[in-house]
Write a structure and sequence with these properties.
- The structure is a single chain.
- The protein is globular.
- The chain has 142 residues and is an alpha/beta fold.
- It starts with a strand and ends with a helix.
- The protein has a single domain (2-141), classed as Mur ligase, C-terminal domain (Protein-Tyrosine Phosphatase, Chain A), CATH 3.90.190.20.
- The protein has helices at 17-30, 72-77, 85-92, 103-112, 133-141, and strands spanning 2-4, 7-12, 35-41, 65-69, 98-100, 118-123.
Length: 142
């Protein structure tokens, strides 16, 4: 966790639908007046399966902005059937959710956001394909 007076960045290991929902809800409950930006990396075998994705429905509904990242090469590496950004977005069911398959584009999006009076929640059992989250946190904290 890194923070300033009106902004906190959280890194969490949450990856299952129930843990994701609990983490997002807990941060929003703890800081109800702050805008919550939540970002999850789908990284585990189960989370990258089309038949499992619907279990994520409404898991990020308490976030003001929600982003999901997955790498299609990870799916190939794990010998799983491909999934699409549209399948992921539909499964999560959150209004306005954005899905990324390129970690650089995700970083670009996260860098463009205004975090004043907000929180950023980064959740993964992976590394967002090598993103140095500590360096990123220091960068956006200023």
């Amino acid at each position: 966790m890194n923070k300033t007076e009106d902004f906190t960045i959280f890194q969490d290991f949450a990856h299952s639908p129930s843990k994701l929902k609990a983490t997002v809800s807990a941060v929003k409950e703890q800081y109800p007046t702050r805008k919550l930006t939540a970002c999850i990396e789908l990284h585990t075998f189960s989370s990258l399966r089309a038949d499992f994705l619907p279990q994520y429905k409404d898991s990020m509904k308490d976030a003001d902005e929600a982003y999901v990242y997955f790498n299609p090469k990870t799916i190939e590496h794990k010998n799983l059937s491909p999934i699409t950004s549209e399948q992921v977005s539909e499964a999560f069911g959150a209004k306005g959710i954005e899905v990324f398959t390129d970690s650089n584009l995700l970083l670009q999006k996260l860098r463009s956001l205004n975090y004043k009076n907000g929180n950023l929640l980064m959740m993964s059992s992976g590394t967002f394909d090598g993103i140095d989250l500590k360096a990123f946190a220091l960068e956006i904290l200023g």
